[in-house]
Amino acid sequence: MRPYQYYRPRNLKEAIDIVSSEESARFIAGGTNLVDLMKRGIAIPEKLVDINHLPLKKIEQKAGILRIGALALNSEVAENKIVKAKYPLLVQALNAGASGQIRNMATVGGNLLQRTRCTYFYDTAFACNKRKNDTGCSALGGINNMHAIFGLNEKQNEDSCIAVNPSDLNVALAALDAVILVMGMKGERRIAFKDFHRLPGERPDLDTNLERGELILGVELSMENLSKHSHYLKVRDRAAYAFAIVSAAVALDIDQGTIKAARLALGGVAHKPWRLYEGEKMLVGQPVSDSVFKQVAEISMLDARSFEHNAFKMKLVPNVIVEALKIAAGRP
Amino acid sequence: MTDKSQSTNPEPDLSFDRVDGHVKVTGAATYSAEYPFDHLAHAVLITSTIAKGKITSIETKLAGQAPGVLAVVSHLNNPGIPGYGIAKQPAERAPMGTAFRIFYDGLIYFDGQPVAMVVAETFEQAVHAASLVHIDYEVEVHQTNFEANLPKATIAPSVQKNKNSPFQDYDRGNAEAMTNADVKINATYIIPTQHHQPLEPHAIIAVWEADDRLTVYDKNQGVKSAQGNLAQIFKLPRENVKVISKFIGGAFGSGIRVWPHTIATVLAAKIVKRPVKLVLGRELMFTSVGYRPYTVQKIEIGATKEGKLSAITHEGTGQTSAYEEHLERTILATRAMYACPNVSTRYRLLNLDVNTPTWMRGPGDATGMFALESALDEVAFALQLDPLELRLRNHADSDPERNLQWSAKSLKECYEMGAQKFGWKNRSLQPRSMKLGGMLVGYGMASSLYGFHRHPSKAKAIILANGSVVVQSATMDIGPGTGTAMTRIAAKILGVQAKKIRFDLGDSSLPDAPGQNGSSTIPSVGSAVHVACESLKNKIIALAASMPDGDFSKPDPSEISIKNGVLYASSNAEKGLSYVDILKFHNLPQLEVTEESKSGPERDQFSMYSFGCHFVEVHVSPVTSEVRVKRVVTCADVGKIINYKTARSQSIGGIVGGIGMALMEASVMDHRRGRYLTRDFASYHIPVHADIPQIDVLYIDKPDVHVNPIGSKGLGEIAIVGVAAAVANAVFHATGKRVRELPITVSKLTDDEI
How close does chain A come to B415, measured CA to CA in Å? Predict the structure, then answer.
């Protein structure tokens, strides 16, 4: 770890000013990921701007919109009464992630910015386009059992990145069509969740579309009728404290056996939380039935591709889609 | 976890709580890294990022100028380690135990090899300076891929030279028997490299008290052997070296040797003329302290249709480094476990450009019994016979390898007790035939065994003037509760309450004792403590006899009882004579004895093993292929149980380790670089609480009168031996899929339709 300067800004504006203008300044909140990255020499900030005391902790409901402050702790959100009542999917996803100790430190904003757990990203002895663009992707010809099957670059070559986004919360937020509120030098803006994270493209080093110095203020969720039939299914070799091999977040609006609306997102399969839009469309207007769910799984897999060690995901993912749909619909 | 577990305990009131439990949970226990020193300097290791080649340059200018830096030590400025002499780095495949020479000649033998050490005023300064050191290498082609290099495996050179080595090719009976068998199975089993990963990482503080006097606070499993080793390497009189290791946060075998980084820390302390501390980061724990070696085993078993084993062949090949052998018992259990007349074993070693493995809990046997007990399950399935019944039909009533009587064996009782507690009779014969709540249910079992190890040990027992007792031995506690068990032994003999007994260990200046390994502590040190306390009791009774009070004038220990440090003669239960009064009368500040205890001719008269078995229930999701262990019953015959509470914890620990071995532990290497990818707990999985179900621990608890004065055989290793097979067999029963390469992960079970 390199020596760095610690700074406690007076307010939001000062925090944003500093990180916008100083290239090696970084915000720090829970630090559950950033500190690891600093220890490994992957993040080398010269200045840490501590935002923990800034007023971004509130979880409040206004006009049918639930706003979760960026600094709300993962454990606080999972215990919040409104969240529990309206967004059980979020609670499930949060509690499926990390450990109790980490959830007590990790913030919602930080969770959105969690970096991949690709082992090559974490080891500076290996080339990694995500760590430093245009150096090559070691996972491509390496051990890639935990890697992506969706959202891959057209051509897989040394310029690619096949890492996955590791967050559980992100998968649920993707399914819930969350909106991310951010503030930068140019003021506030709202980013639809699907536009927040990026596919690798030519800049695998960038995980999100945030601009330099932009700070996440919070996450907004609208009150849709998707709480009754939802489920977060996470597959992992270890029963707790393990990143998802594959996960699925499902929320359904079911009226008298017919699906009125559907949201379907996967984790552990792509560079960003992976929405299954085609599958969602297919579900609308259909009865709750295993054969429909199987068709959804089938079409969802059409654009999937696997590598040397993650071919098992091609079999596992459709199973997970069907199972999550069945559980969400209440017919396991 | 504890709440869910139970054990049968015939003497619950006599089960001691851990004597050091309070200091451990309150943080008062001092571990190796925690000894305070003025002017303590902090060291950080820099390790190689190539697997083979040599260092062409080390750029230390920036690091040297960084704040707080005291030294950057490498082969370029190593003033010399006297014990290394002028000889070259150990020749290829040096015998096991040959020290790897750190900072010696710039040659690289494995990725992660320590190549330099930065010493600074603070840990943070050392870390920072280390990041400024730039090293260039000349890279050579390395070989780390076990499968690709398997044909190069050979009989180890040391075995070739030693006709009496147990690792020589072994054949008993008639090889033809295999051909004539009614049923045959032939399978290959693989265990990947697994790392110990105790909670406490390895840590050293090296202090030169004078130019020729060294004290080392080191996390290790044997202060006496470490003392000898350090004395040899630094050419010091043995008595000038002191090694302290009083509290250890787990080790599992990783602390049996003095590792090169310990030598480096001692060297650095000499150079900077200050105490130096090194704590290995979790990442370095994957390349610095050994591991359970990647091992491939081929087993062929022939059986009669009546379920009698007619022939077994077992070939094991393990990996080691390019510079040193590492032999373990992999194939040895197969010779003794079952009554099979025709058995052949082969043991081969494959040298790769990796660091040397070391013992890891149940070394060799945990590996070998995974293969043998999985293979037995395959035979049972081929015969359509209950797996437990197959084992009963092939029970070895005497040692078939040595043609000797067992010193004691209650394996049949273990099977019976375990099966009953588990409800084994409810198991259906066919795989994939038991289901519960949408899950596939599997019952699996396996036998376990572990050889008996007893080494010469000394103990000193002292009664102080205030009537309290001190017992001392240079033994260790890596977690099982050594002090608690020894206190229990002393308390029983000397009739003193536990709180009035202090047991000292983990200090090389104490009476000789072996390191803590091979489940040998209770059998060896326990015997020494027993003998010393008996001797001390006789001595104080003799002193009592010489006192004017007539009750004790004829010293016959069997006629005398002791309660709370007071002697009572059977002739007069009313009037006692206390230790305090006896010492006072004789004007003695204390009364002490030192005794040694060791094996005798019984070693050649009996075959000595511990035996046991494990029963496991798993649930496997037919949708996600996730495996969860739901229940474990274990039963062990390890002779007399000294202290139930700590014994039970030790068994639970072994089961947890076995579950990890079966379902998640694997150190994955990228062979393009010969470098481990899984170097943290996010990628190297060990079980967490949520993975561990109810564990029922049962013991036969009958003394083995032939092994030692306390009739107890040690428990550490047998607790894990066989567990992985029991889990794998349960997964087969649940799914019908036999996974022969550990760990049994979602990816492996999803590979095929299940």
Answer: 30
The yes-or-no answer to whether B32-141+201-248+255-286 and B152-193+292-453+604-751 have a common fold is: no
Which residue in chain B is spatially nearest to A235 when comparing CA positions? B624
Q: How confident is the model at residue A85 (pLDDT cuts 50, 70, 90)?
A: very high
Q: What tokens appear for A114 in the block?
A: 């969690």
Cβ separation of B128 and A312 shorter than 8 Å? no
Q: Which CATH class is domain B152-193+292-453+604-751?
A: alpha beta
* The pLDDT of residue A155: 79
Residues of chain B with pLDDT under 70: 1-14, 85-93, 549-550, 555, 751-754
Predicted pLDDT of residue B754: 42
pLDDT tens-digit series, residues A284-328 = 999 999 999 999 999 999 999 999 999 999 999 999 999 999 999
> How many CB atoms are located within 10 Å of the residue A281 CB?
12
Average confidence score pLDDT of chain B: 95
Instruction: State whether B128 and A3 contact (CB < 8 Å).
Output: yes
Give the domain A56-332 fold.
3.30.465
DSSP structural state of residue B395: B
Would you list the domain boundaries of chain A? 5-48, 56-332
Q: What does the pLDDT read at residue B7? A: 47
B2 contact partners, CB below 8 Å, separation of at least 6: none
| Chain centre distance of CA A159 | 23
What is the CATH code for B32-141+201-248+255-286? 3.90.1170.50
Q: What is the pLDDT of residue A224?
A: 76
Note every long-range contact of A182-185, with CB atoms under 8 Å and residues 24 or more positions apart, other chains counting: A182/A210, A182/A214, A182/A215, A182/A216, A182/A217, A183/A12, A183/A16, A183/A214, A183/A215, A183/A217, A184/A16, A184/A20, A184/A211, A184/A213, A184/A214, A184/A215, A185/A16, A185/A17, A185/A20, A185/A213
Sign of the C-alpha dihedral computed for residues A116, A120, A123 and A126 taken in this order: negative
Structure tokens at A302: 């059409």
Query: Alpha-carbon distance B571 to B590, whole Å?
Result: 28
CA of B660: which chain A residue's CA is closest? A238
Nearest to B498 by CA among B483, B513, B509, B476: B483
- Chain-chain contact of A239 with B690 (C-beta, under 8 angstroms): yes
CB of A331 less than 8 A from some CB of B: no
b/e for A38-66, b at 16 or more Cβ within 10 A?
bebebbebebbbebeebebbebeeeeeeb
| Residue B28 distance to chain A (closest CA, Å) | 23
Parse chain B into domains and list their residue ranges.
Answer: 32-141+201-248+255-286, 152-193+292-453+604-751, 457-598
Reading the block at residue B239, the tokens are 């008595």
Which residues of B belong to the active site? 717
Copy the structure tokens of residue B711: 């009739």
From residue B383, alpha-carbon distances to B150, B268, B392, B726 in Å are: 32, 63, 14, 18
Which amino acid, B26?
A: T
Q: B interface mutation test: which of A35, A123, A266 has the most B CBs within 10 A?
A: A123
For B59, the token pair is 């750029």
pLDDT at B90: 61
Q: Which of A119, A128, A293 is the mutation pick for testing B, counting most B CBs within 10 A?
A: A119
Complex ipTM > 0.90 = yes
pLDDT score for B615:
98
CATH tag for B457-598 (out of 3.90.600.10, 3.30.365.10, 3.30.479.10, 1.20.1250.20)? 3.30.365.10
Nearest C-alpha in B relative to A127: B673
Cβ contacts of B142 on chain A, cutoff 8 Å: none
User: Over chain A, what is the mean pLDDT?
Assistant: 96
